[in-house]
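Course assignment 3, question 2. Fill in each field.
Student: A.L.
Task: Predict the tertiary structure for the chain below.
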Amino acid sequence: MTEQNLAIVVLAAGRGTRMKSATPKVLHRIGGRTLLGHVLRSAESLGAELVRVVVRHERDLIVESLADHPGVVAVDQDEVPGTGRAAQVGVEALPADFAGDVLVLSGDVPLIEVSTFQSMLDEHRRRGADATLLGAELADPDGYGRIIRGADGMVERIVEQRDATASELAVSEINPGVYVFRAPALRDALSRVGTDNAQGEMYLTDVIGLLRAAGGGIAGVTAPDAAAALGVNDRVQLGEAARILNQRVIRRWQVDGVTIQDPQTTWIDDTATLARDVTVLPNTHILGATAIGEGATIGPDTSLVDSEVGEGASVRRSDVTLAVIGAGATIGPWAYLRAGAELADGAKAGTFVEIKNSTIGAGSKVPHLSYVGDSDVGEGVNLGAGAITANYDDVHKHRTHIGDHVHTGSHTVMIAPVRLGDGAKTGAGAVIRKDVPAGALAMSVAPQRNLDGWVENNRAGTPAADAVARARRAEKQADGE
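Answer field:
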């Protein structure tokens, strides 16, 4: 349902210098999304039809990221600095007659859950408040502004630490900077916020004081998870936010029927999907838009990125990116599936097998020590150990086509472009340069030559020569017997 009486303004104009990165702070990623992406996902879940993102530093990169969020509008902040000015330009970008509620969020606070925002809106509307802010209870609130409430639970003021009295410093509820305002009250208060301070900035916190001085009601809601309410400013906080999000994601899947053997070493992006009765073993990363079917077993020591795994499949000790794995297929250990690898139901990619941009038919096996690139492999195929499809001629890539029920001998090299017909066979060590007809046996035949005495003549004094001498003596003794 679209929320007609709610607008959301996301502040994403800050420089983010403490992140020490060429990437804008709000575009750093956790759990498969950018920090800003998490905030916008929450905004979209609230159903607001008006979402504005205020940008300034690295604005083009941030605007580009908004392509994933249709309907979200970027608004440029001018040279007037401060969160107050950012909020002001965001509100000015709303329809002039909008008189509903404005939820003001920060683009670097990715972990607040939708239920918390909804609680803020519910309390704001129940109280008929001009503003409602989110508070967070910290065991150590040092360095943060304190929220001072009255006996009725309404917010009386926000006190910065440097201005707080001893009793106010004892307050543990701090202001993370998340607010809901009535649009008319916010517009009026912002018009009266100045820059007469040490930083020469417009502070959004000044709006609370102005509204209170004018007799407006200021409500407050305490965040159920204080750590989730705090912003991400540096790499330490980024890592901590990623850990918290990962714990949430893992718990969600466990509750939904997924076995995760070791949550401490398992990472699952918020963008991945897992069916019931999936088993995830230790040291496994399930990333991006990966989707895993019912009853599959993933891990240990496995990485899946933007891949699809069918029901009952097994992937262990392998690296898989942009691949499709059919139901009942087995992958690994130590397989490497690259972009475009597609394994049909019941197929196998075994130990030290690399597959790239290739289709492997139902029930076909690439058991070990093989490279299959740019190839189409039919059903019921068995590629012997060390099979290689040589797809690159130093200029262009070419495809190899292998029919149904083809069996290749060990160390067969198929030099593309080449086609092996249904039921064809190859001998061990075959180098296939020409098409093989259906049902034919292809061999690379060369007479074997044995040069007697070569080791004694060319490797005298080596352990090999000593072994030969012992063998000669043993042969003579056997002949004497």
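Instructor remarks: The domain at 3-229 is CATH 3.90.550.10 (Spore Coat Polysaccharide Biosynthesis Protein SpsA; Chain A). The longest strand covers residues 3-12.
Grade: pending
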